[in-house]
Amino acid sequence: MKYELDARRLFCPMPVIRTQDRVASLTEGDLLEVTCTDPGVKNDIPAWCRINGHEVVSIEESRGEIVVTVKVGKG
Fold first, then answer.
1. Which tens digits make up the pLDDT trace of 22-61?
2. Three-class SS of residue 66?
3. Active-site residues: which are they?
4. Residue 48 burial by CB count (10 A; 0-12/13-18/19+): exposed, middle or buried?
5. For domain 2-71, which CATH number applies: 3.40.250.10, 3.40.140.10, 3.40.50.150, 3.30.110.40?
6. Which of 2, 16, 50, 71 gives 55 a disulfide partner, CB atoms 3.0 to 4.6 angstroms apart?
C-alpha cells in the first residue's frame, strides 16, 4: 500500500519523528511518501532508514518541497 505524510513547515527532528511514528503503523513493503520543506530531511530520513532497516526509494525536490519515498522494511 502507499501512504502519505505531510511534514511541511516542520523542522528537525520533527519530520523524522513523524516518519518514525507513521512507519510503526505500516507493514513491510508499504510505501510512505513524506512531503517536507526542511532540506535537512535529504540527509536525516536516509540516515534514519539505514539505522532502522528501511529503504529510501526516491528523493524528489520541486518548488521548495522535498518528497522522500520510504519503503518499509522489517524494522
1. 999 999 999 999 999 999 999 999 999 999 999 999 999 9
2. strand
3. 12
4. buried
5. 3.30.110.40
6. 71
